[in-house]
């Protein structure tokens, strides 16, 4: 009995619509996050993640509405990130039907918010979304630097130290996105996964760089408990989740 | 067959919307409430629970639910606890060295899991005993867990000739732990059936059939 490696498709949602259309055969509305979540659920996804990229916070209502409609229809865990800054934001998402919220820039700006959220709702509701990239800055011990604003802004902080601190403050898992690997389709950032894995004991979700099913087993061997990807699922064949799981299983790791 | 009525106990515990929807999808007529009449009069009571053991126990006390849960069990009326709503039926919970008494239906202490990666988060297998009603037809499926604490020892006094011993289902994360208990009207699950996709839906239908 071993917990299965989770395979998680991620959808970018802007004003209630999926951005970068998704290429599912026979899908009537490729921009409807609820429809897509249902397709991924049917295709064997272990969880679903929505990343809310809505620029205006005034349009957050749309996001809550999408979360509520999704939670009505699918019965696997749903994580929502983007725009989470405080306890109240998490409260709203949970009430709408999300199971977890992910936090990024707001936690870098004010780490105490992690304690505030997890003391209220428990560690299991909070995912630290950590965007990191390589740096020559000698101040950054691991060589991996925390970035914000989708990798555009460096912080001069060590990503491994930040992961460790966030876990101590209470996050239930860490979504590690390599800015260097992101979009390359050359495979996950194994070095970065190993560096963070060596220092934290909460579950680690690897993200960034997946180009084919063969890229997933090495990320797990490097220490990831779960793998998250977007474009490989959106633009690949309809059975890509199954292909990924087959590759993971053939490498000797358990999948659902 | 008449539609079964289920009350999901509403005491401010996290995402209960999923539990309500999953039970509705499984065919129940569901009410979200903490009123004594709703707790007492439904066919099945669903006790959710997330977060800290001590906080859940306090919240159950605050809404006055403990007595009514006890009355149901005494009257042979079905109760299903989930996650921390499962843990509270044991003797006590220990978090950060603080011991909090539970409802004491079963012996055992809810303690931190000893595993390289905690929380235990994701889909795991389990070993239901022969004759389990809840797991009928889904014995080999995976269910969704998310927890850091669990009961890892079971020493229920089985030498009670007039009592049917509880049926215990185990899972493992670093160490074996209790994933489910079926004990007459009282059943409890460490995992989340409402988040366990098709397998979870089947389990909820199995439970509704026993009501």
Automatic annotation (TrEMBL), chain A:
<dbReference type="InterPro" id="IPR050064">
    <property type="entry name" value="IGPS_HisA/HisF"/>
</dbReference>
<comment type="pathway">
    <text>Amino-acid biosynthesis; L-histidine biosynthesis; L-histidine from 5-phospho-alpha-D-ribose 1-diphosphate: step 5/9.</text>
</comment>
<comment type="subunit">
    <text>Heterodimer of HisH and HisF.</text>
</comment>
<dbReference type="InterPro" id="IPR006062">
    <property type="entry name" value="His_biosynth"/>
</dbReference>
<keyword id="KW-0456">Lyase</keyword>
<dbReference type="GO" id="GO:0000107">
    <property type="term" value="F:imidazoleglycerol-phosphate synthase activity"/>
</dbReference>
<dbReference type="GO" id="GO:0016829">
    <property type="term" value="F:lyase activity"/>
</dbReference>
<feature type="active site">
    <location>
        <position position="131"/>
    </location>
</feature>
<protein>
    <recommendedName>
        <fullName>Imidazole glycerol phosphate synthase subunit HisF</fullName>
        <ecNumber>4.3.2.10</ecNumber>
    </recommendedName>
</protein>
<dbReference type="Pfam" id="PF00977">
    <property type="entry name" value="His_biosynth"/>
</dbReference>
<comment type="similarity">
    <text>Belongs to the HisA/HisF family.</text>
</comment>
<dbReference type="InterPro" id="IPR011060">
    <property type="entry name" value="RibuloseP-bd_barrel"/>
</dbReference>
<dbReference type="GO" id="GO:0000105">
    <property type="term" value="P:L-histidine biosynthetic process"/>
</dbReference>
<keyword id="KW-0963">Cytoplasm</keyword>
<feature type="active site">
    <location>
        <position position="12"/>
    </location>
</feature>
<dbReference type="InterPro" id="IPR004651">
    <property type="entry name" value="HisF"/>
</dbReference>
<keyword id="KW-0028">Amino-acid biosynthesis</keyword>
<comment type="function">
    <text>IGPS catalyzes the conversion of PRFAR and glutamine to IGP, AICAR and glutamate. The HisF subunit catalyzes the cyclization activity that produces IGP and AICAR from PRFAR using the ammonia provided by the HisH subunit.</text>
</comment>
<keyword id="KW-0368">Histidine biosynthesis</keyword>
<dbReference type="GO" id="GO:0005737">
    <property type="term" value="C:cytoplasm"/>
</dbReference>
<dbReference type="InterPro" id="IPR013785">
    <property type="entry name" value="Aldolase_TIM"/>
</dbReference>
UniProtKB/TrEMBL annotation, chain B:
<feature type="active site">
    <location>
        <position position="194"/>
    </location>
</feature>
<dbReference type="GO" id="GO:0004359">
    <property type="term" value="F:glutaminase activity"/>
</dbReference>
<feature type="active site">
    <location>
        <position position="192"/>
    </location>
</feature>
<protein>
    <recommendedName>
        <fullName>Imidazole glycerol phosphate synthase subunit HisH</fullName>
        <ecNumber>4.3.2.10</ecNumber>
        <ecNumber>3.5.1.2</ecNumber>
    </recommendedName>
</protein>
<dbReference type="GO" id="GO:0005737">
    <property type="term" value="C:cytoplasm"/>
</dbReference>
<comment type="pathway">
    <text>Amino-acid biosynthesis; L-histidine biosynthesis; L-histidine from 5-phospho-alpha-D-ribose 1-diphosphate: step 5/9.</text>
</comment>
<feature type="active site" description="Nucleophile">
    <location>
        <position position="83"/>
    </location>
</feature>
<dbReference type="GO" id="GO:0000107">
    <property type="term" value="F:imidazoleglycerol-phosphate synthase activity"/>
</dbReference>
<keyword id="KW-0368">Histidine biosynthesis</keyword>
<comment type="function">
    <text>IGPS catalyzes the conversion of PRFAR and glutamine to IGP, AICAR and glutamate. The HisH subunit catalyzes the hydrolysis of glutamine to glutamate and ammonia as part of the synthesis of IGP and AICAR. The resulting ammonia molecule is channeled to the active site of HisF.</text>
</comment>
<dbReference type="GO" id="GO:0016829">
    <property type="term" value="F:lyase activity"/>
</dbReference>
<keyword id="KW-0378">Hydrolase</keyword>
<dbReference type="InterPro" id="IPR029062">
    <property type="entry name" value="Class_I_gatase-like"/>
</dbReference>
<dbReference type="InterPro" id="IPR017926">
    <property type="entry name" value="GATASE"/>
</dbReference>
<keyword id="KW-0028">Amino-acid biosynthesis</keyword>
<dbReference type="Pfam" id="PF00117">
    <property type="entry name" value="GATase"/>
</dbReference>
<dbReference type="GO" id="GO:0000105">
    <property type="term" value="P:L-histidine biosynthetic process"/>
</dbReference>
<keyword id="KW-0808">Transferase</keyword>
<keyword id="KW-0328">Glycosyltransferase</keyword>
<keyword id="KW-0456">Lyase</keyword>
<feature type="domain" description="Glutamine amidotransferase">
    <location>
        <begin position="8"/>
        <end position="208"/>
    </location>
</feature>
<comment type="subunit">
    <text>Heterodimer of HisH and HisF.</text>
</comment>
């Amino acid at each position: 009995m071993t917990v299965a490696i989770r395979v998680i498709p991620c959808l970018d949602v802007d004003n209630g619509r999926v951005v970068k259309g998704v290429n599912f055969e026979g899908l009537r509305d490729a921009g409807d996050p609820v429809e897509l979540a249902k397709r991924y659920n049917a295709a064997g996804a272990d969880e679903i993640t929505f990343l809310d990229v809505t620029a205006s916070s005034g349009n957050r209502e749309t996001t809550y509405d999408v979360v509520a409609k999704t939670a009505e229809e699918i019965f696997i865990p749903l994580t929502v990130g983007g725009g989470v800054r405080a306890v109240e934001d998490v409260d709203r998402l949970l009430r709408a039907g999300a199971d977890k919220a992910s936090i990024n820039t707001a936690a870098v700006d004010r780490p105490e918010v992690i304690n505030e959220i997890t003391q209220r709702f428990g560690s299991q509701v909070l995912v630290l979304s950590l965007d990191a990239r390589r740096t020559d800055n000698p101040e950054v011990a691991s060589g991996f630097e925390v970035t914000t604003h989708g990798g555009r802004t460096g912080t001069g902080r060590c990503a491994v130290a930040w992961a460790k601190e966030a876990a101590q403050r209470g996050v239930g898992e860490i979504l590690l996105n390599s800015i260097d690997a992101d979009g390359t389709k050359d495979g996950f950032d194994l070095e970065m996964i190993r560096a963070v894995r060596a220092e934290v004991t909460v579950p680690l979700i690897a993200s960034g760089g997946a180009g084919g099913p063969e890229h997933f087993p090495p990320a797990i061997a490097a220490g990831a408990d779960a793998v998250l990807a977007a474009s490989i699922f959106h633009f690949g064949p309809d059975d890509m989740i199954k292909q990924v799981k087959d590759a993971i299983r053939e490498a000797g790791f358990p999948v659902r | 067959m008449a539609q079964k009525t289920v009350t999901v106990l509403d005491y401010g515990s996290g995402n209960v919307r999923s539990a309500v929807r999953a039970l509705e999808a499984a065919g129940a007529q569901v009410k979200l409430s903490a009123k004594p009449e709703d707790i007492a009069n439904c066919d099945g009571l669903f006790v959710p629970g997330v977060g800290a053991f001590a906080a859940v126990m306090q919240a159950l006390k605050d809404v006055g639910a403990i007595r009514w849960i006890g009355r149901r069990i005494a009257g042979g009326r079905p109760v299903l606890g989930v996650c921390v709503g499962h843990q509270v039926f044991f003797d006590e919970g220990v978090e950060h060295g603080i011991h909090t008494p539970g409802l004491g239906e079963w012996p055992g202490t809810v303690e931190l899991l000893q595993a390289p990666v905690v929380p235990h988060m994701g889909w795991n297998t389990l070993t239901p005993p022969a004759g389990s009603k809840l797991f009928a037809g889904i014995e080999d499926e995976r269910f969704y867990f998310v927890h850091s604490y669990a009961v890892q020892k079971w020493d229920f006094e089985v030498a009670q000739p007039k009592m049917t011993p509880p049926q215990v289902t185990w899972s493992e994360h670093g160490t074996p732990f209790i994933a489910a208990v079926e004990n007459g009207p009282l059943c409890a699950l460490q995992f989340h059936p409402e988040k366990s996709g098709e397998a979870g839906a089947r389990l909820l239908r199995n439970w509704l059939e026993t009501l």
